[in-house]
Design brief:
single chain; 455 residues; 4-stranded antiparallel β-sheet
Amino acid sequence: MIAPARVAAYEALSAVTSGTADLPAAIASARSRLRDDRDRALTSDIATGVQRSRAALDHVIAAFSKRTIERLDPEIVEILRLSAYQLLHHSRVPASAVVDDAVNLARLAGKRSAAGFVNAVLRAISRHRKSLPLPPRPADPADRAAALDYFSITLSHPRWLVERWYDRLGFDAAETWLTFNNTPAPVTLRANTLRIRRDDFAARLAADQNGQTVVRPARFAPEGFIVEKGHPLAGDGADAGWFVVQDEASQLVPLLAGAHPGPNVLDACASPGGKTIALAAAMRDAGFLVACDVRNRRMELLRRTVAASGARHVRLVQADLLSPLPFTRRFDCVLVDAPCSGLGILRRDPDIRWRRRESDLPLLAAAQLQMLGQAADAVAAGGRLIYATCSSEPEENEAVADAFLAGAPQFVAIDARRASEDLPAAVVDSRGHLRTLPHVHGLEAFFGAVFQRRA
């Protein structure tokens, strides 16, 4: 019998590669059919680990199979990837069990004729696991070709992206960033101060689970907590709305709205809802807060988040920010956390690195500028407009902010330090933008710019 977690990981990886699901959705679907918590955890680990290490795994598979990845059946590629990942990263798992399951998976996938090939390749990888044919860290960081081979293959990132980071940041910063992306991310929570006081959060969470969950305060986000031990989602606190699961860098974005965002606020790209709840808390759950998104699935996720939070003054509106917004009133503050490439969150969503192309960036930037223009029309005189992304690339960040200002003389830029007293100065760059960087702050790469409509 094949280990259930390996079958589930194979199904998840096949869904991602075929483009029928992104990694979180594929893992969630595969895990839903497993009963054992250990199998569910192993499925997530394998599927996520393969996406993080995919280029290195493919290089090793090609070397020992003496065939390019493109010449192999897609089913066999996924079986070899997940099995090679376990051989190289799960030292406690017997190699024989991994190889035997891989052979049986090949048969299950209708590739009986490839069973012997799978067996031979994986046994060769297992024998040479301590001397893999991967590009080494270059002795001379200035050797661009060697550095890019090391970055793109051994550290497993798209070559077009590592070229950008090497040229823009230099070897050391780029290497730190890539290593950061390949390290599992901690679970990060934001205390929902509509339900619980921040100062009580850690103790209440520990008591909720008999001391099994331990958290520590986040470094930069004032209401953020890093889970050091335990599973907070398994306790009553999750259902009671004590917290939302939200990346620390993401938690900094709503701070740009200021301590008092105003009586009328719009979160224009709101799902899954973490920033909406932060805005509701800043408004003391009073006034008029509208949260929008465009797709049905995202609206349902937003609806669940708002309901659990206890926020009473949030109104949900399904709207497309690429079109004029359906509002007659104007807002004191409008937040546009724009859909973007996601290249700043590769640690949490490693499959993005293989789905994005450099040619996507101009198209995304054009859409972001259009969204920002539509949102600007909803800002009241003297009101604030916030633009944010989770992208690492200047085309989606400074370039969009600069293009917006060039075409909107009724707006002026505001330094993020002046916009928020709660935002640490360490996460504001020389131009006054919110900017978090893995090699500087140990956080995902987020960007935020603040504009104000002239009174």
